[in-house]
Design brief:
The protein has 300 residues and is an alpha/beta fold. The chain has one domain: Arginase, Chain A. Helices cover 45% and strands 12% of the residues. It has an eight-stranded parallel beta sheet with strand order 2-1-3-8-7-4-5-6, with helices on both faces. It is globular.
Length: 300
């Protein structure tokens, strides 16, 4: 059994300019089912979490303005999305999915959210297509309920996890590790527990060598008992926004390295998909599907 959070609202219709990158939320489950990597029984439909779980991480005044559609025009522009009730429902459902994934990973070792990885959301504002921070909310949930004492967030999206870094800047029980494009969004970076900025054009060999040198050391030093993995595929050479040069095979090797280490160390891990903006939707879906194939090979 490979627990996978998926809700129809993940791919809820948006204005024309936003529809292409949202297609992956429909196509990825179809691909995984068609090829037999997963079965229909592996999927569960998440629900929004209790508001108290959201407010453990997010500012109450910001949450209420977001819920009621009262963001300023400037705040809305910063998120990249026009507000709608459907968009709000999508965001809180993503949070519920990642929290439920954490619950299931505690029982079975791994769980994956088809969406999630909304790492640009701060406590009191949204940015960069992120309105509420799902991995931060789930990490706070784990700590509050005594399910973890030390959390490691491994953020390998091409963009720095600035919101996550800011949220946990003064929280020693959450170690934030972000390996990202040095000259990519956001222009103003926050300080993670560990940042590894990469030059444009970084290839498979350099990327994987750095990750293989860093992550085992972090596991030994941080000694986490729970891991969140943000597996963005905007590191691909085909990505329109990423500026790195990983192949699809290299991206899969990245997943094998991260998930293999978690599996060998017996660390429960929640995987969220993060970004992917290649010209061909097939490149995005195939790279994301590899993450699920790797997880199924280890835990299936």
């Amino acid at each position: 059994m490979l627990p996978i959070a998926y809700a129809p609202c993940y791919a809820h219709p948006l204005p024309a300019g936003h529809r292409f990158p949202m297609l992956k939320y429909e196509l990825l489950p179809e691909q995984l089912l068609r090829e037999g990597t997963v079965t229909a029984a592996d999927f569960f439909e998440p629900l929004p979490p209790p508001v108290a779980d959201i407010l453990r991480t997010h500012d109450a005044e910001y949450y209420e303005r977001l819920r009621q559609g009262r963001l300023t025009r400037q705040e809305e522009r910063a998120t990249g999305f026009p507000w709608s009730a459907a968009l709000f429902a999508r965001e809180v459902t993503i949070l519920g999915g990642t929290i439920e994934c954490a619950r299931r990973a505690l029982a079975g070792g791994v769980a994956l959210n088809i969406a999630g990885g909304t790492h640009h959301a701060f406590r009191d504002r949204g940015e960069g297509f992120c309105l509420l921070n799902d991995q931060a909310t789930a990490a706070d949930w784990l700590l509050a309920h005594g399910h973890a004492r030390q959390v490691l967030i491994v953020d390998l999206d091409v963009h720095q996890g600035n919101g996550t870094a800011a949220i946990f800047r003064h929280e020693p029980q959450v170690f934030t590790f972000s390996m990202h494009g040095a000259r990519n969004y956001p222009a103003r970076k926050e300080q993670s527990s560990l940042d590894l900025p990469l030059p444009d054009g970084t290839t498979d060999a350099d990327y994987l060598a750095l990750l293989a040198d860093t992550l085992p050391r972090l596991l030994a030093e941080v000694r986490p008992d729970f891991v969140f993995y943000l597996a963005g595929v905007d590191v691909l050479a085909t990505d329109k926004l990423g500026h790195l040069a990983l192949s699809r095979a290299g991206c899969r090797q990245r997943d094998e390295l991260v998930l293999g280490l978690c599996h060998r160390h017996g660390l429960p891990v929640v995987v969220c998909m993060g970004g992917g903006y290649s010209e061909r939707i097939a490149d995005i879906v195939e790279a994301h599907a590899n993450t699920f194939r790797v997880a199924a090979g280890l835990w299936g």
